Amino acid sequence: MGKIDCRACLVEELTDICLKNNIKKFRAKQIFGWVQQKGSQNWEEIRNISKEDKEILKQSLYIQAAGLVREQRSKDGTRKFLFSLADGERIETVLMDYEKDVSRDRQTLCVSTQVGCPVGCSFCATGMEGYKRNLSAGEITGQVLDVMRYLQKEDESFKITNVVFMGMGEPFLNYDAVLKAVTILNCEDGQNIGMRRMTISTSGVVPRIIQLAKDNPQVGLAISLHSAKDEIRDILIPMNKRYPLAKLLAACNAYSALTKRRVTFEVVLNSANAERSEAQELAKLLGGMMAHVNLIPVNPVAGSGVSRPPKGKIQMFKNILEEAKIQVSIREEKGLDIDAACGQLRQRLESEEYESVDQS
Ligand code: SF4
To answer: Does the beta carbon of 127 lie inside 6 Å of ligand 1?
Structure first.
């Protein structure tokens, strides 16, 4: 059997490994703390385990940094990180709206769940590149740990408080690894990120919506909706052909009934869909549901042919939804100067030089 990634292990799993190797049970909790709380990137950083025990454990477990290689900083505080994984594949992770301010109680990291994405949304740089593979639970938790470690060099008390599974990939097509990462990140002896401070975003994998409500009703659910019309959603998000709006919204209603929680609907607004008729259709579709709509003015992707709508149209769209008693927010336009739409950093890296990250 191959070695197991320590960053993908719960305390119980580490306990089993310790006991099998005649190592005291309490060592498992210590290792978990070093790896999942302090973000240790190798065995050498773990100080209170004997050399002998480490040598034994190294036969079964490995600890490896996710491989942070590049960083981009936006004027508005958004910071975007590019990771090169053990097999050379590249993923990205975005820290929204970072400020070097210890009093801030919210630092939100947007993590990737797949290398590439099979869904192929027409507005998405990742979708344009196709699918390579799923990330492991350790590669998902690793994004949180390595960004934390890197930023603790600037501010020792830096902590990631919120995680959104909204980066590259469709989280519900890598369900088990994503749920395992959520469980690990929630552990008290690790990052201790509250379940309600984590949100999984899906393009609409209907069976997993119900499954999430049953498996982990505390985690937030966001739907990449983008249009209230099947004929448009079929083009934007090919997943819609398999799970059209009627099925998707029925699953969201079932999710709310089971969890008593509001579903967030993400709607990217561009120059083509920021229209009165679209807003009215959306109000009709979501009226009466436990819904919150997040309006996101599009980040233009080179070659996609879409552009941002004027501010007045975005406000008009919001007003129509609010008149239908639907909760609405406009997501601030973060990171426009650093390509904050998913996949764009990786796409451009081939041809341009970015700031290298010193991980020492
Ligand atoms: S928007 Fe999300 S689901 Fe759609 S292709 Fe991009 S990464 Fe995949």
So the answer is: yes
What proportions of the chain, in percent to the nearest 5, are helix, strand and coil?
Answer: 40, 20, 40
Note down the domain range covering 30. 4-62
Does residue 268 line the site of ligand 1, with CB under 6 A? no
Pocket flag, ligand 1, residue 124 (CB < 6 Å): yes
Q: What's the rounded Cα separation, in Å, for the pair 227 and 19?
A: 53
Give the pLDDT confidence score for residue 353 in this predicted structure.
Answer: 41
* Domain containing residue 160: CATH number: 3.20.20.70
227 CA to centre of own chain: 22
Among candidate residues 71, 92, 139, 170, the one labeled active-site is 92
Q: What is the pLDDT of residues 117-146, one digit of tens each?
A: 999 988 787 877 889 999 999 999 999 999
Beta carbon of 143 within 6 Å of any ligand 1 atom:
no
Kindly tell me if the per-residue pLDDT of 207 is higher than 90.
yes
Closest among 111, 113, 163, 170 to 136, alpha carbons compared? 113
Q: How far away, in angstroms, is 124 Cα from ligand 1 center?
A: 6
At 142, list the tokens: 């690793």
Please tell me whether residues 190 and 76 are part of one structural domain. Answer: yes
Residue 226 contacts residue 186 (beta carbons within 8 Å)? no
Domains: count for the chain: 3
**Which has more pLDDT, 127 or 70?**
70
DSSP 355: E
Q: For 228, phi and psi rounded to 5 degrees?
A: -95, 5
pLDDT value of residue 288: 94
In a domain, 357, yes or no: no
